[in-house]
Amino acid sequence: MLTTNEIRRQFLDYFHRHDHEIVSSSPLVPRNDPTLLFTNAGMVQFKNVFTGHEHVPYNRAVTSQKCVRAGGKHNDLENVGYTARHHTFFEMLGNFSFGDYFKERAIELAWKLVTEEFGLPRERLLATVYVDDDDAYNLWRKVAGLPEDRILRISGSDNFWAMGDTGPCGPCSEIFYDHGPEVPGGPPGSDDEGDRFIEIWNLVFMQYDQPEPGQKVELPRPSIDTGMGLERIAAVLQGKHDNYDIDLLRGLMEASADLSGVSPDGEYRPSHKVIADHLRATAFLMADGVMPSNEGRGYVLRRIMRRAMRHVHKLGVREPMMHKLVPQLVSAMGDHFTELRRVEALVTETLKMEEGRFQGTLERGLKMLSDETAKLPDGGTLPGEVAFKLYDTYGFPVDLTRDILRGEGMALDEQGFHEAMERQRAAARKAWAGSGEAAWDTVWFDVRDEAGATEFLGYEHDTASAHIEAIVRKGERVGSATAGETVELVTNQTPFYGESGGQVGDTGTIETPTGRGRVTDTQKKVGDLHVHTVVVEQGTLARGESAELAIDGERRSRIRAHHSATHLLHEALRRQLGAHIAQKGSLVAPDRLRFDISQPTPISRDDLMAVEGVVNARIRANTDVAAKVMPKDDAIEAGAVALFGEKYGEEVRVVSMGGQDPGANAPWSMELCGGTHVQRTGDIGFFKITHEEGLAAGVRRIEAVAHQPAEQYVREQENTVREAAAALRATPDGLVERLNQLLDERKRLERDLAETRKKLATAGSGGGVETRDVGGVPFASRVVGEVPPKDLKPMADEMKKKLGTGVVAIAGSWEGKASLVVGVTSDLTNTVDAVQLVRVGSQALGGKGGGGRPDMAQAGGPNPDAGEDAVSAIASALSEAVAA
Residue ranges of the Alanyl-transfer RNA synthetases family profile domain (predicted)? Predict the structure, then answer.
């Protein structure tokens, strides 16, 4: 029996033998499609190839694409665990033809794979075609020899695929596997549901273009896009009716069972299925740069994690468990998806931390939900307001509420929940607003198609002669721009670096025979088009003119220093904190750098100082910084660090620095990077970490300065120390000692002041203690002026001692608010309760209650002038208590 890993390998090798380029899976975070939350199909990374906006050096490809369907339009989250074939994470096997072969070859390749390579019985296979696709129908008869009763014509969207309302589209042909008459279920296209016929492969014949909705014209170079779910075909080949019984997922379920002590079959099988599936989604999303958070993709990830954690709780486990399953996942899938090995520690620590945090939320939410469902009849509906309160007050995800209700045969008032949600966050709702990447605006595709890619000369040159290829004003192409206008301008070549990889774009000047402009920013559009934002300062800039371009050299030198310092910082962090450190984001600017990393806990001061010391040591060594272009696979094999989730071409630029230590087989720092860097590490000058903070769960941010800004930062810090020392009449070297002296003096004065306030409790008339008999109980009261609330209790203790037996009350004010303390001697607490008395007094102060013990209670209120009223109210309440 083939394992899942062997099936994947066999699929890729088969198409590679048939002249298909094996293309690595693209990240789960789409880089070229702002309409998608996650990559959900194999064709996503080729979308711009199909539309003609991107060109690749091959016309046939094969992939095993990582996919996630959770959140957004395609959301299978809440079905996972309760069906045989729903997943949040799955692999999509696919072969693609970009204007090369078409229907006949696609059908031939598919048929030979499933029958000859995979060995599926021909009599168990049938195909569907679009209702009017006679070509496909005849080809299935000709190529596969399928009889007419095993080729089904189906109309509707199930057998016609479109990229959107406009763009490429075409009919589909699906291959189904027949489990036999002993399994219930009707054929494809029927209303008879069941699992007898299982779709295993979808072939899309992309032969039309839709210039407008409803219009179809033949494409000049039709293409092929296919998709086969790895888990589905593995289930068929391994003789399973449930995807979760294939070797890969069954292994995760059994590991979950071993840790929980609960069988992977029977009543709790859905929980083990959820845990296995959601663990995969969690690990792969984190490997591609998504971290749990409260918005966007991070919020979807947190929902996935918490749904799995709820099922861990359902198994009876009360300690974090999911992180213990990570080694099993890495062992099962890490050979093909090597990124799992790189992030194993990060995934483990983040899961452990998130599960620990969620435990309290889960316990509280489950109790409240249990209390509410107990009020409902069998099959009842939970009010939407209750579900929203669980979500809003307790942080209990609504999908968990829905999941639990489903298990108890109950429903959720969905409309009521959404109405409550809208009322609460109408202004802030943004579940997904897209990536906002203006880089893919249509105008820039048109410009690049005409002008081609911009040749970047900035690695070697600060100036260049160029030719103006296009001028764009407010999204529209124009022929020229005059003084006072701001436009976006494209040249055939440029020394200006376009913002990417965290490095900001260059600024500088542009001059032509007819005008001059100031370049205020440079951006990269559609991958390799450098777009200069230009303020025309004099004359006219026109398309077709020659131009002299010059960057701001001093600004660039500071950017170079900060970018190279970022590489040294990255490597120093990896060596100091561990290999789980991965870049999550960065900013490289002329005045500072910002570096976000995967790190589940705060970085200690000692670690930060050690990292800073290592970076400065590498700077002082003044070793060469080298850049080399090489094949991506060779670079990764040599040890170059790549950013998780980033899409690279087949050729990459590798930047090495920091020298090569004795015995090492690679430079100290080696990263895939397209940015600009110093020539030697000594050019960085000096490096200083200025700040470290948590950005999100599992993500820390480090801010630092280098080069001249680092010197300026140190000077400013020195000036601050000198000014502070002068103000405290100390030398800079003696500043800490002087501060400690002042702190000790302050503590002594605070103690003396507290003692003085205690003595005031026994002061005479004129605001002193007033003692009277209330129903036979001595009652001592005092209204004091500005006294901190924390000092009232010691004063009350002192009054109780002097009184011997009875009740004391002290009302005071502090910073515009009232405070109140009531004390009862121990011999009276059986009949008089200080808490009840202080609550009565609190109402007189405008407060809402109070708390404490029967012998001492405290309260407050917004009215500082009502102390006498509070004391009177307490006396009345005491009289009633004694009389009772």
Answer: 2-716
